[in-house]
Write a sequence for this structure.
């Protein structure tokens, strides 16, 4: 029973029976239904026990009956704590003030975090929140319910589809999901689709306009593929031609690939320098007497100290300088030829645009001279060959203008 909250509230003492018969005293306490616990015998067979404060004052008649005397060894419980605090008013008021200040600080909003989107910036979200009274060091009990607050913020952000507000302790988080809108398209005038190069048609799909060629037709640069003039006679009108036209185009490349190439390699030697960051300046602290390399590759990593969400103007950095040597590697004619063709293919596909595919390649000429393999190769590429060309109208009947995609 010792230490239970009920006994702690009432208060209890540890008492030693210094005079009198212990056995007779216990019998009298049992008759009067006194609550004693943790009974033990100290030196010289002196009885030691715990008793609650109300029962302690009932011990006097029993002590007179057995001609006994007691001495209090220990005092425990809330009444004694309050008595001690009453003698230390400054400490008591300080503790009360600390608890009160801690409670008040826990009811403040210390930090407001917002997650922006592609078109709605973090600053716009925080500005909308401030307009609704959400700001750091604001009393949380003065704010409306999070669902109502989210609705009010959403009204101030026209491009927002959904706004979520979540309160976690003294932090308030705002999440915004923006609505997806189609990109505004520009008005376009009537146009034809013409060939951007000499080619053989492999695919033609006309979404709008009148196709002028068909598959396997040979066209020259500038020929009309899909015409923007449709109809006949008085019903002729101009439209915006749309569609996909792909064709086979031939490119002749002259490639000179060297039989030797320079390769950068690391020797394994490196220098490490450490820095202290103070504001925008770096103070070097190690690596002063390091050797210098003729060729080197340097990589640095810097870290700033952080205190909660604040980034301090202090930090450290490590810079590693690795020694580099240039080595020459010899290649066979086949390896040089393969490397040259690979580079030519990469450049050609980048030039022909998205979706281009090399269908075939034919070696026209090959020779080795001055430490290089020189080859002439013909590439056959399937690519998009449609090119827009505006229709200049003079006496063309009514025009049908459509909104471009």
């Amino acid at each position: 029973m010792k230490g239970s909250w009920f006994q702690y509230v009432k208060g209890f003492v540890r008492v030693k029976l210094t005079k009198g018969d212990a056995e007779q005293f216990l019998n009298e306490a049992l008759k009067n239904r006194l609550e004693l616990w943790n009974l033990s015998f100290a030196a010289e067979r002196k009885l030691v026990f715990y008793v609650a404060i109300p029962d302690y004052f009932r011990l006097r008649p029993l002590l007179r009956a057995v001609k006994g005397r007691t001495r209090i060894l220990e005092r425990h419980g809330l009444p004694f704590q309050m008595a001690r605090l009453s003698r230390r008013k400054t400490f008591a008021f300080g503790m009360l003030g600390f608890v009160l200040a801690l409670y008040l600080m826990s009811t403040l909003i210390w930090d407001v975090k917002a997650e922006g989107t592609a078109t709605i910036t973090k600053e716009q979200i925080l500005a909308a929140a401030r307009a609704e009274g959400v700001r750091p060091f604001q009393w949380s009990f003065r704010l409306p319910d999070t669902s109502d607050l989210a609705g009010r913020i959403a009204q101030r952000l026209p491009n927002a589809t959904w706004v979520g507000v979540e309160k976690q302790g003294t932090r308030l988080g705002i999440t915004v999901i923006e609505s997806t809108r189609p990109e505004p398209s520009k008005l376009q005038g009537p146009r034809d689709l013409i060939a951007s190069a000499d080619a053989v048609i492999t695919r033609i799909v006309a979404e709008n306009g009148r196709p002028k060629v068909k598959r396997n037709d040979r066209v020259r640069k500038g020929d009309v593929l899909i015409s923007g003039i449709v109809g006949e006679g008085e019903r002729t009108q101009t439209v915006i031609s749309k569609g996909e036209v792909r064709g086979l185009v031939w490119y002749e490349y002259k490639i000179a690939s060297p039989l030797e190439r320079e390769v950068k390699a690391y020797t394994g030697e490196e220098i490490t320098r450490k820095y202290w960051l103070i504001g925008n300046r770096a103070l070097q602290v190690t690596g002063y007497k390091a050797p210098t390399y003729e060729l080197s590759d340097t990589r640095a990593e810097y870290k700033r100290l952080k205190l909660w969400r604040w980034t301090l103007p202090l930090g450290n950095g490590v810079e590693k300088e690795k020694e580099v040597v240039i080595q020459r590697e010899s290649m066979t004619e086949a390896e040089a030829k393969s490397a040259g063709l690979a580079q030519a293919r990469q450049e050609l596909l980048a030039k022909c645009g998205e979706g281009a595919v090399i269908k075939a390649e034919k070696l026209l000429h090959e020779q080795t001279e001055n430490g290089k393999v020189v080859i002439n190769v013909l590439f056959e590429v399937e690519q998009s060959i449609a090119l827009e060309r505006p229709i200049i109208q003079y006496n063309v009947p009514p025009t049908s203008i459509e909104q471009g995609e």
About this structure: The radius of gyration is 46 Å. The first helix runs from residue 5 to 10. The chain has four domains: 5-82, 108-178, 193-259+331-405, 261-329. The longest strand covers residues 310-330.
